[in-house]
């Protein structure tokens, strides 16, 4: 049994929103084809080893950094804070927790100034920053926007072995839990948590961790997401559509999961709901409710439960995994031991794919 | 080896379009909930044992008849012909083929006048009619249309053991083949054929037959189809979503397959293409092309290949099945013996669901 | 009073559909920016003086030809016929009417073979052809399709001084009238007529003629049309949006009217309805019904009533105009003498723009 | 010249978001038809004289109250605050400003507990509350949602004679200005300001005031808004569509303005952008830019500039109007003295409607 992460006495940094992801890719050109040619992200700046990308409604320098490297991994999950002073809070908060903390006045990547990176108690490389270069916001530039235009970075999704332990730490950091998946015994399989008033800035998904499950970009309408699927078919990369499109139960958003050339998972997401009221109710889903992950009851593919991206420590080395010991969502819902239901009280084994499993 | 159906010397009836389906259901009230409350079809008329339904852009009396009966089955696939005289052509055409032919001046169902029913050489109960009651076309009645409004009956899809034999007969009847699925050895797995200038009025799908694979209604936009999925989730009948939503390769239409309370399959369909030019090119798909059935490469569920509705003869008795002896699409593409590819030349076993199969 | 155009004894050519428009433009480069860069039409072929364009679901060589010339005009409205022999019918039909007829085995434009051009009794340059070069149908090429992708050529709309006279001639030519606008006195202001089973292949709009009111391309969904508006805003050419977007009363289609650099009017159009049944009912609208032209009651701008493109005779000279002597729709519905109503029985002067007029 | 409203020393109440509008209507049954039958708002509760309504993603008791009364007017613009204690801040803040302040532990309307109402320095009746009854959030209830489903209350829009004076006061109250419309001389015609991280919770529009210009509800997608237009056509109330649908320049949202039976203006709105970053840039538009109000350059109808709803003081009496003395947007952009441009540098008089004006 793991012990709880203590709550620091130092105040948490005031986080505005999830802001960018730094991703290590093994073939920068292939990744460029995926993120720029296929998904239509806009190149703010590029060097021999890095590409800085943004969506059409981002007005800071980037919300995705691709960096050439030896193995696919996540180098940083970056949050924007409310003022420059919040970086001091971040330093104090994590120092008190005994975490490794590094601060660079000139930033860790281009476009960003003073920044703090930590390896947080869950093992993830987290960055906090306020100073950032502004660039043209392409909101009104419909002449540049493709049929599958991406508007914003919406959230991260992290894999951790112990979801309640991770969620408790995130609440200490100032997040609020908006939805979760549980079973009758109290096992928590996943939890969604937010700073901005949407369903999440990040989620904690149960599994061997720390790993990144996915990064999600928001589109405006459902047809934008369908257009990405159609384009992937036309480019004959439909085998990189992993799951969806569909409607989530959790979050109520319309979604699609696709895989980049290194297997990093990207979600395209639209239309979750307002959570900004102080008494926004927590929505809890039963892990056996077959509409929790897909409102239309379409099956979650096994890879979606098992695969995720390694994360790096501040030296750039992959962080070793801790195994999940709690019950696993895939096992309790799919296959020989699992069941899920469409209507509470019904029992349906191997839902919809039954005979294949 | 079955022998070819001869080409009659009598001219074929001039068919305008597929017009309505008569369906036997075992619980009329449950079926009403599905077709009226859930799908939003409009009731033109109903009796104790029958419900006459139509879509919002149909101006004849009905395009779906539900009739209470002892076993789920299809009582008639009805086509509208260009003039009253075409019924004489239908009689002569099928009489020459040795088929049982029945003509009723007063029609076989309400709303329809003079009509001919035959059990065609493929075993299906087919109706031809011209005379029909006109009703209010609800095209402009947006006050009545739900978010998933259905506009038109689009097509039938029939299961037959020998696709080329069936297709040849349909061509004799005046249909044109628009697309098909074949393999390198020349086996034909399915063929689409049309009278109206869309991809099809009906299709022939290889399998034990005669059976009806599905009936399809057209919606205007993709979001209308997604709205039906969302509604089925809200009503907790998502287990009746069998396949999709998705984009077809064949036809290029956006689709959804759902199952009514008796297991009759209904497709909701939108946005195929114009085929009305006299030299409209036949589009042939390789059975191993994993985008032929779903452009996004999402797997076809086994039930979609195996299940279909029995059809009745003119006495109302189920027509016995003839087994398919040619290779079966499911077997050559899914599971232990099958393979399909995203990019020609690649070999991928048990595509996307691999580890589960 | 003009006399009726006689009905030829010769059979009319069997027309499949409206197929392409040849347009004379005064600055080919500017027109290319409009049709290719802005609207996204695909260039099949281009020469110094001509550009051959097509939409994404056209499989013949082109459905729009731009030709550099001294004055903006329409050189041909082209229809595809059902077989090569139909050209003989076209020659006989128009010869009997005393029209000038020209036939060229090698075609009048690239991509087309044997073709007949006539100056029809209404004064329009009409082409008939069967032989045509096939090109790649880009239906499935979602990698090439912009957010405002155009799928098909849908219809022409012609301005004529005497609508019933023109409609009668078109019926002789094999067209069926699907909708019209009339007043209580029997004046006909416009009529829609079709060969293919949509609301129209062409329409006759009352005004000084012969002129072309517009050519219309079909998109799949309403958001595709909105995307064109958004792009025109981004390119700062919103002053070329003449009318709409909106929902038509007539045809029930969603529409947008924009103006090319020479003032040729282009409609983008989606989702009219099936008219292919032999007894498809004629829909008649009252000219004073303010929802006939825009279902939402938004005002028709005056230029839409008054402006149209000159047409050329077979020598390439502009055809002189004949003045409309019947009542004019703009005058009876807008401004000092006009009125229109939202609800029959109400009288509303200068509807919605009242105080400005 | 009016004097500035002083900045109180007392801290402003911490406002979460605009939360509900209380509207006085003269025929409750007619208003019910408009808001419930036409727009599809959900009735939480109703009495003989009041109807409490909410959108599908609202989880508090209501976001619109209709109250029967003698003259059409606005009784309260209500904001939700972050905690019960913020009501004390509201009392202190407005007391210091010399405003009339009223507090009721039991609330002013059903469903709300402890609340403070003030007549603010701009003359508007403003309510602050925290305590509120929770009701079922209908987010997932797709079985109840019509094609034009409304998701959230998005914003208010207020008419004030002196926009900079009003904006300064709102900034004192903790709002941030996101966009405005100015001219080269520095006249400010309108300003948008927010608490939640969207473009606005309210806007100040220049004109004789205090009046309410409109209340806006958010839909998810553009087609939802078009569905409302289509339905208004079908119900023959298209004359209550005042302006749009269209794309705003300011806010980049897709919009529609309609009028309720009393002439209260309702906007339906979707897809503005994230403004929650602390350094979110102010976007300023030139009043002569013809795309500022409608990105597609469609004309703003005069009534949209001139008409607005009276507001009531805390005794329920209409607040007298103060005339705007600054230049008026309608006059500087439309008609004899006005001009606007599509491309900076061009001069276009009476844009698009020129000849009519």
Q: What report would you give on this structure?
A:
- 4 copies of one chain form a homotetramer.
- Chain A is built from 6 helices and 20 strands.
- Chain A is globular.
- The first copy, chain A, folds into 2 domains: 15-129, 2,3-Dihydroxybiphenyl 1,2-Dioxygenase, domain 1, CATH 3.10.180.10; 152-332, 2,3-Dihydroxybiphenyl 1,2-Dioxygenase, domain 1 (Roll), CATH 3.10.180.
- In chain A, 15% of the residues lie in helices and 32% in strands.
- Chain A starts with 14 loop residues before the first strand and ends in an 8-residue tail after the last strand.
- In chain A, the strands form 3 sheets. In chain A, strands 9, 10, 11, 12, 13, 14, 15, 16, 17 and 18 form a 10-stranded mixed sheet that branches.
- Chain A is an alpha+beta fold and 357 residues long.
